[in-house]
Amino acid sequence: MPSCRTVITALLLLLLLPLAAKKRPHVPDSLQTLTFEVNGVPIHLQRVEGGSFVMGATPDQHDPDTYTDKPAHLVFLSPYYIATTEVTNRLWRAVMSEKEMLELSGYPEHPVSFVSWHEAQRFVRRLDSITGMPFRLPTEAEWEYAARGGEKSNHYRFAGGDEPDSVGWLYSVAGNWTHPVARKQPNELGLYDMTGNVAEWCQDLYGPYQLTTAPDPCGADTGSFRIVRGGSYDEAKANCHLSVRRWYEPETSVGYIGLRVALSLPDDPMKQVVPEEPPLTRKIRIKGRRLHFYLVPGEEPYYISDEISANQWKRVMAAEPPDRERGLAVGMSRQERLRFAETCSRLADKPLAVASIAEVDSAIAKGAIDPPKPPKRKKSVRSTQRSRRVRSKLSPWTEIIGVRLSLPDDPVLLDFKGDYNEKLPLRLVLKLH
Q1: Looking at the domain assignment, is residue 381 inside a domain?
Q2: Pairing of strands 199-205, 257-258
Q3: pLDDT for 367 beyond 50
């Protein structure tokens, strides 16, 4: 008959596992692995996608002589990164130059050992200050989830397979000494030596497992021992399956314990809010009619409207514009244009303003709006000015007989690039900031 605890565990798993089946967003290839370089020595980290798993004495890990990995319990983890290899002597020297370890003996690619938990903390703090990234030791749950292969797990007994000699340096093949990292078969996530070579410090204080845990567990709240996970060159096969737990005083410094680093980004890349690109066009309803606006990109983007027609002016201002040109409202004073923009802002409940000549020119240069159409017959500046002089001289005599001559626009004044020209068509702008 199954025990009461076994029944409760099974029921909890049935209830909670569906919560982990939510579809996660795709992570681009550029975020699957990260590489940092410290004094010419690279550190490669593999992304471990967040999820849930049953931690501890699962059927593939069960050992009747082991009791510290019970009860098996469900754990939820957020995404994180973990180094693909153990910290080597070469990397340790690049970060902690005052302690060369075995570098001078010709073993730069062997995992560093004789490192206490306190020294491991000094290492990650120094690495943090060099790279500007929050490196740390993995938690026990993160270590086991990564060693099992994360969401790609094939439920092997060891990290990468069921034959320990092919995936790790254990007592049977190691010759009672460390070996260069990444020489054995990796696990499903591409992580090396999570079984064998050296055991690895974790961040957690030791405490017995509980049937239920909070998401992202980080060990006991109190205690004096720190967790060590993974087998070593000094261990037999029977003691190196992935759920095995060991704990040591943090001052312990022995040849078969090293470390592997982990990293949680300050803001997980998949949780960052990517600002939504503004639409290229907008339609704003004013007095029952839609006015089209077009995006002008740049450091301070804004929308600019079509040219205001005479009919639109009349509908908003309840009066004819002073002049018309090709059906557009022109000839308004500066104050009249400002009143039109204020009225439109109130009617549309949008912060609309009169477009300056500089804003119109920028919109034309960036292709948001078309340049103004040239007149059908373009006179030279000289001929236009000559016509103005002739008409101005004749005007006093023609007025005697009741005829008033209109003067053509001065082409020099039309080229004026200030903020206002009454002959220019009116446009509105909508600022995004």
Answers
A1: no
A2: parallel
A3: yes
- CATH number for the domain spanning 220: value is 3.90.1580.10
**29: CB partners within 8 A, 6+ apart:** none
Angle (CA) 73-78-79 rounded to 5° is 125
Chain centroid to Cα 57, Å, comes to 36
Q: Are residues 289 and 188 in the same domain?
A: no
Same domain? 87 vs 209: yes
Residue whose token pair is 């206490």: 116
Number of domains in the chain: 2
Burial 249-288 (b: 16+ CB within 10 A, else e): ebebebbbbbbbbbbbbeebebeeeeeeeeeeebebebee
Chain segment 248-278, per-residue pLDDT in tens: 999 999 999 999 999 987 654 444 433 455 7
Distance CA 212, CA 371 (A): 68
Per-residue pLDDT for 429 more than 80?
yes
pTM value?
0.58
Name the residue range of residue 88's domain: 4-268
Nearest-10 crossing angle of helices 310-317, 334-348: 70
8 A C-beta contact, residue 13 and residue 74: yes
How sure is the predictor about 239, in pLDDT bands with cuts at 50, 70 and 90? Answer: confident
